[in-house]
Amino acid sequence: MPVSPQIDLTPGQVTHFINQGFVRLDDAFPADLAAECRSALWEQIGLSPDRHETWTAPVVRVPFMGTPPFVAAANTPRLHRAYDQLVGAGRWVAPTGLGSFPIRFPSPTSPGDDGWHVDVSFGTDHPDFMEWRVNVKSSGRALLMLFLFSDVGPEDAPTRIRGGSHSVIARQLLPHGEAGLTLRQLAADGFASTAHCPEALAIGPAGTVYLCHPFLVHAAQAHRGTQPRFMAQPPLFPVGEFNPALPPSPVQIAIRQACSLTF
């Protein structure tokens, strides 16, 4: 794969992405920009960082934020170069904002949304999200991304990641071709097929971004810390369908390697 003179992911990190399904990019966007975005999110949800008594729900969701600070956070030169390295130059659509935001608060109550899953990518016009689909080409999604807008430690409800699970999912999808599988079909065994995969936590200071393979199995968890966790989990959209005439990107290499394919 041709390498730009300006790169942000080392060859070892790209290999880790191919084999484990994710890579952590530190200082992906500035901490002061993260603080500006947090302030906007506090305003959006109508709560205050100084009134802990109002933090009554374990999770509050914001679907999308498209104001300039969020557009800027998603489109730093550092991130653009990483998108090029993992997806391929010219093969991804620049984000017009970020979402969704599951804002998690310290709470003894189960959030109720902490099951293992993959983020499906097409058929999203179906009213039942469990019928949304994913196929072996990952139609409609180039990456899953986790943007940390607050400092996230092990107690702050970091997303749980099953390293290498993307390879298991690729092999499950392969026999189903273009149609792929629904989330309901993939989740039929509770993703027990990936239970052996080592677990990692998406921790780091505000401004950290985890760039993940679209098939990566991941899960939320309860917040056992003291300060709310602000994170976005947007897709990176592809420009179009897989093009066999182009050199394979690391996203595609991971699928080919998992399935022993030559396409």
Describe this structure in words.
By secondary structure, the chain is an alpha+beta fold. The chain has a single domain (21-259), classed as Sandwich (Jelly Rolls), CATH 2.60.120.330. The chain contains 7 helices and 12 strands. It has helices at residues 11-20, 31-45, 68-74, 77-87, 165-173, 183-186, 250-259; strands at 22-25, 59-62, 101-104, 133-134, 143-148, 160-162, 181-182, 199-201, 209-212, 218-219, 231-232, 235-236. Strands 1, 5, 9, 11 and 12 form a 5-stranded antiparallel β-sheet that branches. It has a 3-stranded antiparallel β-sheet with strand order 8-6-10, with no helix packed on it. Helix 1 (11-20) packs across helix 7 (250-259) and helix 2 (31-45) packs across helix 3.
CATH fold group? Jelly Rolls
Overall structural class, as computed from helix and strand content, comes to alpha+beta
Oligomer: single chain
How much is the average pLDDT? 95
Instruction: Return the domain count.
Output: 1
Distance between the termini: 16 Å
Radius of gyration: 18 Å
Count of DSSP-assigned helices: 7
